[in-house]
Write a structure and sequence with these properties.
Elements lengths: L2 H24 L4 H13 L3 H8 L4 H16 L8 H49 L1
Helix pairs in contact: 1-4, 1-5, 2-3, 4-5
Length: 132
C-alpha cells in the first residue's frame, strides 16, 4: 500500500476508534457500566483490578484497546510492512483518535455554552414580558 493511502486509512480508521472510545467512556448509554467501573477502580484492594476498571473510565486509556482491536481486524500498518509498521500504526491511530476526541469535546463544550446562553436569554425575555 502506498504511503498516501496509508495516511488516508490512518485518518479514517481513527474515526471509529474515537467514536467507540468516546461513547463507552462519556455517553449516557454506558453510564451504569462507567459508574460500576469507577467504583471498582477506587475501591478494589488490588492494583491490577483498580487499573483494569479505570481503563473503562478514561477515553485516552480505552482508546488504546479500541485501536488494538481495529489494528488486529484491519491488519493496518504504517510505513513498514512488518511488525514495526503495526506498532507505528497503533500509536498513530491512538494519537489521531485522541485529537478527534479533543476536538469533539471542545465543540461540545461550545455548543453547551451556547445553549445555556440561549436559555438565559429566553428567561430574561419571559421576565420582561411578565413585567409588561
Amino acid at each position: 500500500m502506498e504511503l498516501s493511502q496509508q495516511i488516508q486509512y490512518l485518518f479514517i480508521l481513527a474515526l471509529p476508534i474515537a467514536s467507540v472510545a468516546w461513547t463507552v467512556t462519556k455517553e449516557e448509554v454506558f453510564r451504569e457500566l462507567r459508574e460500576f467501573c469507577t467504583k471498582k477502580s477506587k475501591e478494589s484492594s488490588r492494583i491490577f483490578k483498580r487499573k483494569f476498571f479505570y481503563l473503562f473510565t478514561c477515553e485516552y486509556c480505552f482508546s488504546h484497546y479500541v485501536a488494538l482491536f481495529f489494528l488486529i481486524i484491519t491488519r493496518y500498518h504504517l510505513l513498514y510492512n512488518d511488525w514495526r509498521g503495526s506498532v507505528i500504526g497503533f500509536f498513530a491511530l491512538v494519537w489521531i483518535a485522541n485529537v478527534y476526541m479533543s476536538l469533539f469535546g471542545f465543540i461540545r463544550v461550545g455548543m453547551k455554552k451556547e445553549k445555556v446562553n440561549a436559555d438565559l436569554e429566553e428567561i430574561k425575555l419571559n421576565e420582561k414580558k411578565k413585567e409588561t
